[in-house]
Amino acid sequence: MKIIEAKAAPNPRRVRIFLAEKGIAVSFEEFELTMENIRSAEFAGRNPMRQVPILVLDDGQCIAESIAICRYFEALFPDPALFGATPLEKAQIEMWNRRVEHGLFHAVAQAFRHLHPRMSEREVPQVREWGVANKDKALRQLALIDERLTASRFVAGEAFTVADITALVAVDFMVAARIERPDSFEGLARWYADVAARPSASA
């Protein structure tokens, strides 16, 4: 079993943090995201979406998408329950993870892909106006998360979960997307100091 990743990319980092929180050791294989490598038939055979991370099982089967990979390991190793233990916990964590992923994370990614010069070959066409619009959207989404974190220790409740992993990676990805985090978000700042200090954050 191995995970094919590009360590600098945000989605593989979500998986690394998740595995570190679980205490699961998996070998990683670095994949260089050049256009030649992305377009190769071998890479497409493993993931037709041509993205990392990809979990390659011992029998050769492949699982792509970071949350799908995390769910696979959650099923194998239920503790700690980063997707929740009770039906209510699972629903609340799913709700907040989707809010962060489809709101903040997606907006930051769109800003990065449509404004960063290095993405010009991969995001065709790059639409500058869309990138700028997503910077504003990211800040609006961040305000909602900040509001949540003024009333809750972690994103989905009182325990660290996959929703916090998604949020941490999204907030750190803002640096590459050149979106400045407002100093006025006190709930977010308190939460960020907490989760960024966890050993898994440097996985």
SSE blueprint:
Elements: E1 2-5, H1 10-22, E2 27-30, H2 35-38, H3 41-46, E3 54-56, E4 62-64, H4 66-76, H5 87-115, H6 128-149, H7 162-176, H8 186-196
Parallel strand pairs: 1-2
Antiparallel strand pairs: 1-3, 3-4
Helix pairs in contact: 1-4, 1-7, 5-6, 5-7, 6-8
Task: Please characterize this protein's 3D structure.
The protein is 55% helix and 7% strand. The mean pLDDT is 97. The protein has helices spanning 10-22, 35-38, 41-46, 66-76, 87-115, 128-149, 162-176, 186-196; strands spanning 2-5, 27-30, 54-56, 62-64. It has a 4-stranded mixed beta sheet, covered by helices on one side. It has 2 domains: 2-76, 3-Layer(aba) Sandwich (Glutaredoxin); 87-202, Glutathione S-transferase Yfyf (Class Pi), Chain A, domain 2, CATH 1.20.1050. It is globular, with a radius of gyration of 17 Å. With 203 residues, it is α+β, with helices and mostly antiparallel strands.
The CATH architecture of the largest domain: Up-down Bundle
* Helix-strand sequence: EHEHHEEHHHHH
Quaternary structure state of the chains depicted? single chain
Which fold name is given in CATH as the topology of the largest domain?
Glutathione S-transferase Yfyf (Class Pi), Chain A, domain 2
Distance between the termini: 18 Å
Major sheet size, sense and barrel closure: 4 strands, mixed
Strand content: 5-15%
What class would the helix/strand composition place it in?
A: alpha+beta
Number of domains: 2
Mean pLDDT: 97
Strand numbers in spatial order across the main sheet: 2-1-3-4
Which CATH class of the largest domain? Answer: Mainly Alpha
Number of beta strands: 4
The low-confidence runs, each spanning 5 or more residues with pLDDT under 50, are none
Characterize the overall form: globular
What is the tally of helical segments? 8
